[in-house]
Input
Amino acid sequence: MALQFTDQTAREAIESGKPVVIDFWATWCGPCIKLGPVVEELAEKYPDVQIGKLNIDENDEIAGENRVRNIPTVLFFKDGELKERSVGLVKLSDLEAKLQSIL
Output
């Protein structure tokens, strides 16, 4: 199951240095809603990775710091740094490929 990140919990996860995947979304965003099940499936396939969603309407600090301008945007962090970025509605295989590149 995907985590529900806040700015604080996302920052803590990123600073842990472990791989972290964050889906930036909003309730009014159609493509974001369609990407939701894909992110859930990714989280189920990789239970040892912190994978979750962050609602940009409720939490905008991490989005601003990482220049998230369009949603859905999925960011991939490792060692406390942004390593990969995916923008728009994508397939599970696309997200998996980016995640594999940081594991």
Notes: The mean pLDDT is 97. The longest strand covers residues 81-87. The two ends are 19 Å apart (CA to CA).
